[in-house]
Design goal:
about 230 residues; alpha/beta; binds S-adenosylmethionine
């Protein structure tokens, strides 16, 4: 059973307030020709709006329960034919097509435990792209204030949905627990600094086109959030 299978039922309600990234990724998709690959597509929160904008999406995820939700959302919104969902690992995606855009929204790369796995994922994204194609993803690195404010506290993030962050600064990992009624899950996220991401992106064969601090495209100035747009170099 994949990690997100345990919370697939509550994922959409849990992430309902996260909307600021949707127009950003739809905009990125509209700039490119042809299909988009979304790594860690989840419940289709981003993929389905991209399909509604007329682009085909190939979505990869480890969780069959999340993919079932994505399938249902795509059908409900009338874009089932544009959404091609595949079970698989984003480090070794089951995709033979080459595309102009690969995206990995909502911090999904932070599920990978270490630099080696993150580099593997970036290289896999590189190999899916046509020369000059783009990889766009977002991640975060918490501020000290964020850690102090939230560490170890159960907070009601949405009505009836509680979230707790246990930060380990020495390991740079976050144990995120979520509960709602009978559903509970805990997942680890592992962050890196902007300098470390830049090095991995370069090692994977990309040039950084832009690094934003938020989805309104403000430049990154040490914010918690990092939105990377990268061009396949070779
Ligand atoms: C935070 S959700 C993001 C889902 C979606 N991209 C969104 O923006 O709502 C993270 C997703 O990553 C998936 N995931 C985690 N590790 C993965 C891996 N190694 N390969 C593929 N999917 C993975 C989970 O199953 C989950 O659906």
């Amino acid at each position: 059973m994949a990690l997100y299978d345990a919370i697939a039922e509550i994922y959409d309600a849990w992430s309902v307030s996260v909307v600021e990234d949707i127009a950003f990724y739809v905009g990125e998709a509209k700039r490119c020709d042809g299909p988009v690959v979304e790594l860690a597509v989840g419940s289709g929160r981003i993929a389905v709006p991209i399909a509604q904008a007329g682009r085909k999406v190939i979505g990869i995820d480890l969780s069959t329960s999340m993919l079932a939700r994505a399938r249902a959302l795509a059908e409900e919104r009338g874009v089932g034919a544009l959404v091609d969902l595949r079970v698989g690992d984003l480090c070794d995606p089951p995709v033979t097509e080459h595309v102009h855009l690969v995206i990995c929204p909502f911090r999904s790369l932070l599920h990978l435990p270490d630099e080696a796995e993150k580099l593997r994922a970036l290289r896999a994204a590189h190999d899916l792209l046509e020369p000059g194609g783009r990889l766009v993803f977002d991640v975060f690195a918490p501020s000290p204030e964020d850690i102090v404010e939230t560490n170890g506290l159960w907070l009601e993030r949405e009505a009836g949905i509680f979230e707790r962050a246990d930060w380990d600064e020495s390991r740079r990992s976050l144990l995120l627990s979520v509960r709602s009624g009978e559903s509970t899950a805990a997942m680890e996220l592992h962050w890196l600094s902007a300098i470390e991401w830049r090095r991995l992106i370069d090692e994977a064969g990309f040039d950084v086109a832009d690094l934003y601090g938020w989805f309104d495209r403000r430049p990154y100035r040490g914010h918690d959030d990092m939105i990377w747009t990268c061009c396949r170099r070779d």
